[in-house]
Structures are given as C-alpha cells and as structure tokens.
Design goal:
The complex is a heterodimer of chains A (114) and B (112). Chain A is built from no helices and eleven strands. Chain A has 114 residues and is an all-beta fold. Chain B is an all-beta fold. Chain B is built from no helices and twelve strands. Classes of the chains: A mainly beta (114), B mainly beta (112). At the A-B interface, strand 5 and strand 10 of A face strand 5, strand 6 and strand 10 of B.
Chain lengths: 114, 112
C-alpha cells in the first residue's frame, strides 16, 4: 500500500519567499502530524490534526508557520516569509484510529532557505 | 506525564556482534512503546511495537525488544549486526492520550 507521500522532496529558496510543503496521509488514517528535524534540536512536533481538526499547535515556532488540512487526504505546512533558520527536514506522519497506534512517516522534505 | 530517555547517543559495534540500544521510559499509564529506525535521507520506519501483549516483541530485520516494567526499560537488541543496520534509532512512548514522546535518538555505527 502507498505510504505517506510528501512533496517536494527538496526545496531551495531565498529568504522572504513563501514555502508550501505538502502531505498525503495513508488512506483511512485519522491523525496527521508535522515534524521538523534539525541536528541542533532533533525531532520536534509542530502540529497535529485529528479528523482534519488541529488539536495541538503549540510546537509551531512562530506566526510565520501555518498548517491546514482541508480534507482527510491532504495537508499543507506553509512558511511565510521564510528565514534561513527554517532550514531543516520536515516530516509528515499519519496514524490510524487509536492513540497508541504507531505513526507512519513520509520521507520528508529537505528545506534550505538561502 | 511521560518521558523517554535513550541512554546512549552513539553506539559502535563490529559487524557480526550483538547490538544493544538502551531505552528507559516513564509513564503514569500503561504505555505503548515503539522503536523506529531512520536511515540517511529517509523518514522514520517502524521497527517494532509493544502494546501490552507479549513482553518480548519481535520486529523487522532481526531486531527485538523486551518490555521490563520493573526496570521501566525497553531495550532494543539484535544478535548479529549487519552493515545495513547503521542508522539512527528512536525509542518512542505513547500513553493515556498524552502526546507521543520521541527519544533523542541513538546513532548506531557498524564497523567492518
């Protein structure tokens, strides 16, 4: 079966530009998570959704970051305006019903802000 | 509240020797515990999970982990390391509707 699909795999852009990362969760999964991974801070949870509703966005670093989940099969993470310190690998994960089920991760988007 | 501690940031073994990656957890509820592996430029892949069934859990690629409630540990082992096992490994705890908590990771090096 298809796993979590993220696009693009790589993004290089100049600071100040808007960046949109996309995620297609596994069909039937009802929770979706956005993470950021850096060498300095490791894996950080940014936001997660249950049934398309944002539940906890306390990890979103600033107002420049926003996430949406307009339907069960698609989510976006947007950074506007982008800054060099936003450079990281961003992962999307989805999880089936049940809080103790494992999350399934996409291969990530490697973002570089020049 | 819950937490997870991976006791080693780096572990180095020779190919063909046993692997031990240590993980301790804390949870006010009966936890579910997971181990994930991350290879370079890839996402996290589930190796195995414990969800209150058998305390010895077998995963993919010959890995297994034992849940020890008395020691609050969930160490990951493999009898014989292979070069392809070189990666970063994450221990994860989830319980009682709280956030899923990821450990800081252990990087495994395998020497030829």
């Amino acid at each position: 079966d298809a796993g979590v699909i993220q696009s693009p795999r790589h993004e290089v852009t100049e600071m100040g530009q808007e960046v949109t990362l996309r995620c297609k969760p596994i069909s039937g999964h009802n929770s979706l998570f956005w993470y950021r991974q850096t060498m300095m801070r490791g894996l950080e949870l940014l936001i997660y959704f249950n049934n398309n509703v944002p539940i906890d966005d306390s990890g979103m670093p600033e107002d420049r970051f926003s996430a949406k989940m307009p339907n069960a099969s698609f989510s976006t993470l947007k950074i506007q305006p982008s800054e060099p310190r936003d450079s990281a690998v961003y992962f999307c994960a989805s999880r089936p019903l049940g809080e103790n089920q494992p999350q399934h991760f996409g291969d990530g988007t490697r973002l570089s802000i020049l | 509240a819950q937490s997870v501690t991976q006791l080693d940031s780096h572990v180095s073994v020779s190919e063909g020797t046993p692997v031990l990656l240590r993980c301790n957890y804390s949870s006010s509820y009966s936890p579910s515990l997971f181990w994930y592996v991350q290879h370079p430029n890839k996402g996290l892949q589930l190796l195995l999970k414990y969800t209150s069934a058998a305390t010895l859990v077998k995963g993919i690629n010959g890995f297994e982990a034992e849940f020890k409630k008395s020691e609050t540990s969930f160490h990951l082992t493999k009898p014989s390391a292979h070069m392809s096992d070189a990666a970063e490994y994450f221990c994860v705890v989830s319980a009682g509707g709280f956030k899923t908590i990821f450990g800081a990771g252990t990087r495994l090096f395998v020497k030829a």
